[in-house]
Design goal:
single chain, 120 residues, mainly alpha, ABC transmembrane type-1 domain-containing protein, BP-dependent_transpt_permease
């Protein structure tokens, strides 16, 4: 943001008498919006893993609420013979994997699409 504040177009707006609020909303925020979207989409998988890991360890969401980590924790408590009879208990691990992979691909696609220096 400090770099955008010193760009020529922001300095020209200030020289023409634009207020700080107008410069912020017309020049600085649009310049950082792409980066914010990419950072948010790449941070979501970390949040999913953190919540699932904490719930799996018993430090996150507790029953009666449900989360993928809590479901995996409950699936771990069953015996080996029950895994052969009920393999669907490990489906939350698959959904964790798919959702994290999806958000990573989304973040990569957004980064490629919103990169102003990329050659299209």
């Amino acid at each position: 943001m400090l770099q955008l504040r010193e760009m020529e177009y922001a300095q020209a707006a200030k020289a023409l008498g634009a207020g700080d609020t107008r410069i912020l909303f017309r020049h600085i925020i649009p310049g950082t919006l792409g980066y914010l979207i990419v950072v948010a989409s790449l941070a979501i998988p970390g949040y999913i893993l953190a919540e699932s890991g904490l719930s799996f360890l018993g430090l996150g969401i507790q029953e009666p609420s449900s989360s993928w980590g809590l479901l995996l924790s409950k699936a771990q408590q069953i015996g080996i013979s029950a895994i052969k009879e009920r393999p669907w208990l490990f489906i939350p691990g698959f959904f964790i994997f798919v959702s994290i992979l999806t958000y990573n691909y989304l973040g990569d696609a957004l980064r490629d699409a919103l990169d102003p220096r990329a050659e299209h």
